[in-house]
Design a protein that fits this description.
about 375 residues, alpha/beta, Aspartate Aminotransferase, domain 1, Aspartate Aminotransferase, domain 2, 2 domains, four-stranded antiparallel β-sheet, 15 strands, globular, binds pyridoxal-5'-phosphate
């Protein structure tokens, strides 16, 4: 049994979430529930593996062991029933860097790339910062649930788009896309020669009643047009180690991606990141099962607390991730006032929904990857500020 209730002071540990509070919110007197890492200790089998290598005391240029790809293949097969091949697997020092490299590798300046807002904000940045054009296939929000606007997706795909960046599971709205939804995405993209980059970084944190389906696993045709990005960073709380695996079944696309990786000279990776990722996938199954159970308890308790005590706020029930998308529109505040209210009155640091693009106004994203006692303290602050 792992202890997810332990309170660990992260301030002063070079933590973005804690040590940038003053810079981001103008005060460090708040509970930080924004950037997506968790307040749980990294599991001991990972710190032990890093510690063992640390004792060697020489940290020269290093390569990933053959066990790295094996651990990825094993994990995807046992956790997600997806059979991958050794050749398909390549590397990136993080998923967002991979998204940017994929944009460079698979498209040209001026090309159109589809995203589905409200969505993880760097999706747009990797497009615009590389001089490509984002096409916004906005999600439909109806009765507290999000779905894909397939008519609009068809139009956007048919307008010469080169790529769709899919978020599966979706951050921030918490959807785990179902088989029929993924099939429809694949059908539209194949018909219109649109490649699909499926960011599946949240795939291991899926709640009971839902099952993550890798986009590439739904058919050989989908596999051919796909790139899948995964990482142990969210699942095992090791985002600071910047290591991820990129799975590209098509040899041509993989060659183009690897050429960018080589040009940037970032292919070897970080010795500790490589060891941590391999170890996590080799030994992490039980830990993830316990973590998901804990997160699921957190989300159920948070959701029922809000429904009972702060019914003005609508909870979009997440099917995955430790991120909760909250609809504050009933409070009738503009976004600036809402953030100000949360920071100064409730003393809470959430992510402002606006950063996720159209559809984000009036919403906030709450990170519940923390001990239950902290989550409940935060919700009480929210209730006390509102009543
Ligand atoms: C959908 C998604 N992709 C990528 C990332 C970040 O990945 P990395 O830290 O590996 O760049 C996040 C972090 O929140 C995310 O939610």
């Amino acid at each position: 049994m792992y202890n997810f209730d332990e309170l660990i002071d992260r301030s002063g540990s070079h933590s973005v979430k804690y040590d940038l509070r003053e810079q981001i919110f103008g005060t460090d007197d708040l509970i930080p529930m924004w950037v997506a890492d968790m307040d749980f200790r990294t599991p001991p089998f990972i710190t032990e593996a890093i510690g063992k290598r640390l004792k060697h005391e020489i940290f020269g240029y290093s390569v990933r062991s053959s066990g790295f790809n094996e651990s990825v293949i094993q994990w995807l097969q046992s956790r997600h029933q997806w059979i991958t091949e050794n050749d398909w697997i390549t590397y990136s020092p993080g998923v967002v860097p991979a998204l940017s490299m994929l944009v460079l590798a698979l498209t040209s300046p001026g090309d159109k790339i589809i995203i589905q807002p409200p969505v993880y904000h760097p999706f747009k940045h990797v497009i615009t910062n590389n001089d490509r054009l984002p096409l916004l296939n906005r999600l439909i929000y109806s009765e507290g649930r999000y779905s894909i606007d397939f008519d609009d997706l068809k139009k956007k795909a048919g307008s010469g788009a080169k790529l769709l960046i899919l978020c599966n599971p979706h951050n921030p709205v918490g959807r785990v896309w179902k088989n029929d939804e993924l099939n429809e995405i694949a059908r539209i993209c194949i018909e219109n020669n649109v490649l699909v980059v499926s960011d599946e970084i949240h795939c291991d944190l899926v709640f009971p009643g839902n099952r993550h389906i890798p986009f590439a696993s739904i058919s050989p045709e989908a596999s051919e047009i796909s790139v899948t990005t995964i990482s142990t960073s969210k699942t095992f709380n090791i985002a600071g180690l910047h290591t991820s695996a990129i799975i590209i079944p098509d040899a041509g696309m993989r060659g183009k991606y690897n050429a960018v990786l080589d040009t940037l000279h970032v292919g070897y990776g970080n010795i500790f990141g490589n060891i941590a990722m391999e170890t996590a996938y080799k030994y992490g199954s039980d830990w993830v099962d316990e973590l998901v159970e804990y997160l699921y308890k957190n989300v159920r308790l948070a959701s029922s607390f809000i429904k009972q005590n702060i019914p003005e706020i609508l909870v979009i029930e997440p099917e995955a991730t430790y991120l909760m998308w909250l609809d504050f529109q009933n409070l009738g505040m503009n976004d600036k006032d809402l953030v100000n209210f949360l920071v100064t009155k409730a003393k809470l640091g959430f992510n402002d929904g606006c950063i996720f693009g159209p559809g984000g106004s009036g919403f906030q994203r709450l990170n519940f990857g923390c001990p239950l006692s902290v989550l409940m303290q935060a919700l009480e602050r929210l209730r006390n500020a509102i009543i």
